[in-house]
Amino acid sequence: MTENNRPPHFLEKIITEDLESGKVPTIRTRFPPEPNGYLHIGHAKSIWINFGLAEKFGGSCNLRFDDTNPVKEDLEYVESIKRDVEWMGYHWDGAVRYSSDYFDQLYEWALYLIREGRAFVCDLSAEQMREYRGTLTEPGRNSPWRDRSVAENLELFERMKNGEFADGARSLRARIDMASPNINLRDPVLYRIKKASHHQTGDKWCIYPSYDYAHGQGDAIEGVTHSICTVEFEDHRPLYDWCINNLPTPSQPHQYEFSRLNVNYLITSKRKLKLLVDEKHVDGWDDPRMPTLSGMRRRGFTPKALRDFCEMTGVTKVVGVADISMLEFALREDLNASAPRAMCVLRPLRVVLTNYPEGKTETLSAPVHPQREVLGMRALPFGREILIEQDDFREQANKQYKRLVLGKRVRLRNACVIEADEAIKDAGGNVIEVRARVIENTVGQDPADGIKAKGVIHWVSATDNHSCEVRLYDRLFTDPFPDAGDKHFLDAINPDSLTILSGCKAEAGLRQADPETRYQFEREGYFILDSRYSTPEQPVFNRVIGLRDTWGRTSDH
Ligand code: ATP
Ligand code: MG
For the chain, which domains are there? Predict the structure, then answer.
């Protein structure tokens, strides 16, 4: 799984060649989010590629906000994106950049294109422009405004800038080729009028450059060598190159495309994620069920698991869908290696150990991590009354059930072997307490010679434990492809994606739980304190993920 034992992917090959041939002395990449939403797992892939390649080849990577559309953008998104990139473990080179830093230069270059006869002010409305554009099979038609003089274009463009015309009344277009088989080259729009305040430039501008016009020039200004984007932009590359070739840019960047990351059961569209937030189907962008980086962070994902997952899914031009179980695998691998162990009973059932002296307590101990002795031991208070999971006791059961059964024995993890004698019930016939006995010489003995116990269950002291709330998360969608075809993703929302359990009891040591640490609650999964709702008085643990992949199985759990 380490990146050392796999063959290089196609971008690594290109970069290696470019460095060896001397085409570039060093590489510079950039991660260019538009600040119109929170980053999601798809962006993690782009972050990993751009920052990861720079790291691997000793180059640098810029963070540039592609902020050419002020209407949908917001500072809240800028801040969240910076946090997310840092959380992923990466550092951008120098200051944070904005496409808007280059608005003056882009304007100058637009004048340059006009003077060279390569851009014109067009009076067609958006709708008319669509009609003139043609289709994939038919060429487009020239705009009636295409042959305006340079002087007239310069004057009108300046007046556009000065706010003399209404939104959409005019635009600046490149003068390329309305018959091009590539629609992106059919006189694309370079500037549109938008009388909107911008989060960086305020009211300085009322014309804004298009993505296609701003992006490559931003790359050139920053000295980006390899401008990496997703395959949807492959058809835009000729326009990217046209701009670079027709402008006196300080460098000649190149665009390369890879296939975007899709993951089943997850949605990777800011627009759709925003709808989930706006319509309150989830509790904000950082809801632990969201595939946003902030949601996954709050849920307890580790940056390493995300980076490993990106590595596992590879870098190609072939469009595909990654299975979510790969992501979960990467997460379990990381957590299993690092998570301190603890015990927590989610749905408690009291067990009284009738042969254990009343009033006596002792402190047992267990390793913090079974494979990492250096982490030391943890203390487990033990006494006559303990709590186990309701699910871990049955009056009768077949052989598959390896937990506590009347008349049978089970091992209490890190403690001793017990045998159940009697089930006490309430008026409704529900078991509310179990009476059991400790089998002699098994306390703190591992595993006691000759004592057969079929299974192992977890427990906590009934008198010395840590009360908490636990939140269990399931997939947000029941359909692996919630937004495929003409399906509407809201129809596939899983009504049981969140289960809140109050009255859970964790081992006493978790009173000092560290907010950044993911714990393995033995036999239950990995858990972390919720960064929003948890307080010292009312701790709330999120289940990051279960121990095994049980999705879709009717388990006896
Ligand atoms: P969305 O569709 O969610 O709005 P976007 O592409 O419009 O995503 P940007 O902010 O423009 O969002 O994306 C920043 C960078 O992340 C771009 O280079 C984009 O290509 C890349 N990116 C976005 N989604 C994915 C994805 N699913 N897989 C890989 N890279 C992605
Ligand atoms: Mg985009």
Answer: 10-258 (3.40.50.620), 270-338+468-545 (2.40.240.10), 342-463 (2.40.240.10)
